[in-house]
Design goal:
Elements: H1 7-14, H2 16-29, H3 37-46, H4 53-64, H5 71-93, E1 98-99, E2 102-103, H6 105-108, H7 111-130, H8 135-158, H9 166-191, H10 196-220, H11 232-235, H12 241-249, H13 252-260, H14 268-278, H15 281-299, H16 307-321
Antiparallel strand pairs: 1-2
Helix pairs in contact: 1-16, 2-5, 3-7, 4-5, 4-9, 5-7, 5-8, 5-9, 8-9, 9-10, 10-15, 12-15, 15-16
Length: about 325
């Protein structure tokens, strides 16, 4: 196998057939004869080059546990709809103009369209999960949707609050990011009828992977050449883990002015980057992300020894390998 192929790409190759079914189902369910703007907005985001990691987690978990289909496809599409809905809402809340190098939907259309289409996708996701006939699946995904919303609101209340603790940060991350990762893997095990300890292991894997993923993103925000704007979290006054750790160990007056009060000058971003480096906040966040990736990998130990398990393990490594 070509070593240059990234883990998520290998996973996509292994799941090519069910992923094609997921894409076809997404296209069918995002259609609307009564409101043509819905497929316009949705296709802009769904077709925007995402890696489909979350739906792949559902498919991989189900098939690792021996499920032949077809409802893992429904659940993978459900997870992607929930994810897409949250992106539409996030871009409105964050007043974003760009995602994955392309203009956001709220910039191309308007905030109202983004919010309402996001609501439509949430409704579609519930229709899909109900079709599986599993109350437990519905419970897991409904709880995940509520937890995601809670995480986003908690992040909003923590914005620019220098008193934000690492515990609060972890609760935010578990809500807005890890909840959907863990739900995606857990429902794969549930729909496959896996033993309860295996279902819990899949949940633990998804939770730890999601936390590692978000911490890695927090570090990537300060890296050049990643396709993202360097220091966006600083400009938006988000209390990410690197910033929380730098605030605790460096010039409090600087952080009070720039984050707490939002008074930022031209040279402040460069100064913030220096403080993050001097305090070791970026390096320590990298190390913490690696620890969570190791937790994710350890959760897979007792699952069936199969190529899909190895790919899930490699995916955990890849999430933090982006930081090198």
């Amino acid at each position: 196998m070509d070593k240059q192929i990234k883990p998520h790409e290998r996973l996509a190759q292994a799941l090519a057939e069910p992923l094609a079914e997921v894409d076809a189902l997404i296209r069918a369910r995002m259609a609307s004869e009564n409101a043509p703007r819905i497929p316009e907005v949705t296709q802009h985001l769904v077709g925007g080059g995402g890696k489909r990691i979350r739906p792949m987690l559902t498919l991989a978990s189900a098939r690792l546990m021996g499920y032949p289909g077809p409802f893992d496809v429904h659940l993978a599409a459900t997870v992607e709809f929930i994810h897409t809905a949250t992106l539409l809402h996030d871009d409105v809340v964050d007043e974003s103009n760009e995602r994955r190098g392309r203009p956001t939907a709220n910039l191309l259309w308007d905030n109202k369209s983004s919010v309402l289409v996001g609501d439509y996708l949430f409704a579609r996701s519930f229709q899909l999960m109900v079709e599986t006939g599993s109350i437990r699946v519905l419970d897991i995904l409904a709880n995940a949707a509520a937890t995601i919303a809670e995480g986003e609101v908690l992040q909003l209340t923590a914005m620019a609050n220098l008193a934000t603790t690492e515990d609060t940060y972890l609760r935010i991350v578990r809500g807005k990011t890890a909840a959907l990762f863990s739900a995606a893997t857990e429902v794969g095990g549930v729909i496959a009828g896996a033993p309860e300890d295996n279902v819990q292991a899949l949940h633990t894997y998804g939770d730890a992977l999601g936390i590692a993923f978000q911490m890695a993103d927090d570090v990537i925000d300060w890296m050049d050449g990643t396709g993202k704007g360097v220091g966006d979290d600083f400009r938006e006054r988000k209390m990410t883990l690197p910033i929380i750790r730098a605030v605790a160990a460096s010039d409090r007056d600087f952080w009070t002015r720039t984050i707490g009060k939002g008074v930022q000058k031209d040279a402040d971003l460069e100064r913030a980057a220096v403080l993050l480096a001097e305090t070791g906040a970026l390096d320590s966040t990298r190390a913490t992300a690696v620890d969570w990736a190791e937790t994710a990998k350890a959760a897979l130990a007792d699952l069936p020894d199969a190529p899909l398990r190895d790919m899930l393990r490699d995916l955990a490594d890849y999430v933090v390998a982006r930081l090198r």
